[in-house]
Amino acid sequence: MKIDGTHYRTIWRGEGEASVVVIDQTQLPFRFATRTLNRWQDAEEAIRTMVVRGAPCIGATAAHGMCLALAEDASDEMLETAAKGLKAARPTAINLMWAVDEMLAAVRNRPRGERLEAAWARAAEICDADVEICRRIGAHGLKLIEQAAARKKAGERVNILTHCNAGWLACVDWGTALAPIYMAHDKGLDVHVWVDETRPRNQGAALTAFELGGHGVPHTIVADNAGGHLMQAGLVDLCIVGTDRTAANGDVANKIGTYLKALAAHDNDVPFYVALPYTTIDWTLPKGVGAIPIEDRSGEEVTHLTGRTADGRIETVQVSAPGSAAGNPAFDVTPARLVTALVTERGVCPASAEGLLDLYPERRG
Ligand SMILES: CSC[C@H]1O[C@H](OP(=O)(O)O)[C@H](O)[C@@H]1O
């Protein structure tokens, strides 16, 4: 997508033989900065510290991390070390493990001298495929927004609530949950987005709002706890969110707070959609609740906030009572029964094992 008129992906090859450049998402929305990754450990750190985040973006970064490892040392030992280290960076987004395994499959049976070129090629394929997959998710999701628009009175806008950031910053381009919104806006539909701020890392207030503002999509940032009230007041026509790992039965792991939004949507008969690429489906998990690993992050992300002072400085301040403990589970799992439908690159399906297998018949045992 574009930032100040210039098109960007979230990741691209740097100068020279072995460097990768990523947008440093910890600096947004106040500063556009990039970070150059030269070693696989740089990619691991960027994922772990959320310089890059969002399941597909994490996968793309890990894929390039494997390239950086091979540029240093194309041995089997390096392959295994880098794969293990990258996979351990964050536990919930399955795209991370998927991408590393894809890279291993692309190079491990090749002679050492051929591995690096094959790795760069596979990493580029993963990125290019993600762009096209997200574009297709957008096209399928657009139909849902058009259906919602058809139910509105003339002149009424479609109000959509989203949680966290599942836009182009979470992917390589386009995004998952936000792709249909961009397409609806570009098609001239009158859409407005309620943007959950998404405590504690504020991916909504900082990243989704940055994205939507940059694209000219009307939006309003709201406190995470406002969503239920907005739905109860009839101010939300549909919810659409991303996911970091979806189990084979349609249970979805997503940013903490998603489950609560799904409960409110269910209670108010608001359609609740989850947008995802096939790379986010974990076919090995028959169910997600109680099974998808939930990342526990530092309590300091809850007790402290980073923002811009009135005179433009970026500062971190404590917002909690000193000495109090803080818990920070970074994801929750929404049971499939609360999900109206899954929006994938192959189409829209019920959040169920059968629904997914109808779209991905090659996965039938
Ligand atoms: C399209 S995946 C986006 C997904 O990733 C976010 O988590 P994080 O920012 O911690 O990487 C969030 O769960 C989004 O829905």
Automatic annotation (TrEMBL):
Key words of the record: Amino-acid biosynthesis, Isomerase, Methionine biosynthesis
Alphabetized InterPro entries for the sequence: IF-2B-related (IPR000649), IF-M1Pi (IPR005251), IF_2B-like_C (IPR042529), Initiation_fac_2B_a/b/d (IPR011559), M1Pi_N (IPR027363), NagB/RpiA_transferase-like (IPR037171)
Binding annotation for substrate: 53-55, 90, 203, 254-255
Enzyme Commission identifier(s): 5.3.1.23
Active site: 244 (proton donor)
GO MF annotations, alphabetized: S-methyl-5-thioribose-1-phosphate isomerase activity
Site residues by UniProt (Transition state stabilizer): 164
Known catalytic reactions: 5-deoxy-alpha-D-ribose 1-phosphate = 5-deoxy-D-ribulose 1-phosphate; 5-(methylsulfanyl)-alpha-D-ribose 1-phosphate = 5-(methylsulfanyl)-D-ribulose 1-phosphate
Pathway this chain belongs to: Amino-acid biosynthesis; L-methionine biosynthesis via salvage pathway; L-methionine from S-methyl-5-thio-alpha-D-ribose 1-phosphate: step 1/6
Pfam family membership, one: IF-2B
Broad EC category: isomerase
UniProt record, GO biological process: L-methionine salvage from methylthioadenosine
Family: Belongs to the EIF-2B alpha/beta/delta subunits family. MtnA subfamily.
Annotated function: Catalyzes the interconversion of methylthioribose-1-phosphate (MTR-1-P) into methylthioribulose-1-phosphate (MTRu-1-P). Also catalyzes the interconversion of 5-deoxyribose 1-phosphate and 5-deoxyribulose 1-phosphate. Part of a bifunctional DHAP-shunt salvage pathway for SAM by-products.
Official protein name in the record: Methylthioribose-1-phosphate isomerase
